[in-house]
């Protein structure tokens, strides 16, 4: 009975690892799509991508948690467990770790692109707000036209 349970656990863990690796591949595609949207003028694509990222993150988290629960009883990390119990899973584990590192870099790059876009939008809003303020009172209390103060020209960066 113990051998059957161990075989089932091994099969489940390898299946889980394959699912996790596949989910990470899908996440790479999402982050690359996000990067293209951020670099282009396709910001309308960001909301659906964000929703898909949340769903995929939940799936990856559940798969990682299940993997950790399987390993907890053994007291080994994933690589050591695979070396002892299922060496055929080592390439998938290495790919999983490589994808996770790649995802971290992609996510960092996308975060930086978002910050750049945010700063640009804040500057544009500041210019528009300043222009609105300077034209808000075209005539003063004395009925004479107000002269707008020197400021940036709309559309300039």
TrEMBL record:
**InterPro entries for the chain:** FlgN-like, FlgN-like_sf
Q: Which Pfam family, an example, fits this chain?
A: FlgN
UniProt key word Coiled coil: yes
Question: Keyword set for this entry?
Answer: Bacterial flagellum biogenesis, Coiled coil
* Top-rank lineage group of the source organism: Bacteria
Question: Per the database entry, which stretches of residues form a coiled coil?
Answer: 14-69
Give any single GO term for biological process: bacterial-type flagellum assembly
Question: What functional role does this protein have?
Answer: Required for the efficient initiation of filament assembly.
Task: Give the protein family.
Answer: Belongs to the FlgN family.
- This chain belongs to which protein, by name? Flagella synthesis protein FlgN
Q: Which organism is it from?
A: Sideroxyarcus emersonii
């Amino acid at each position: 009975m113990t051998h059957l349970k161990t075989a089932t656990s091994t099969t489940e863990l390898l299946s889980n690892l394959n699912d996790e690796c596949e989910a990470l591949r899908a996440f790479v595609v999402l982050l690359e799509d996000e990067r293209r949207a951020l670099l282009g003028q396709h910001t309308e694509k960001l909301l659906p991508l964000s929703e898909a990222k949340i769903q995929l993150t939940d799936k990856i988290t559940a798969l990682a948690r299940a993997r950790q629960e399987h390993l907890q009883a053994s007291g080994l990390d994933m690589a050591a467990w695979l070396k002892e119990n299922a060496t055929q899973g080592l390439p998938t584990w290495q790919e999983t770790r490589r994808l996770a590192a790649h995802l971290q870099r992609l996510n960092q790059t996308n975060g930086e692109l978002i910050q750049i876009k945010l700063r640009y939008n804040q500057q544009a809003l500041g210019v528009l707000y300043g222009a609105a303020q300077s034209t808000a009172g075209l005539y003063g209390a004395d009925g004479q036209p107000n002269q707008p103060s020197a400021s940036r020209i709309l559309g300039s960066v």
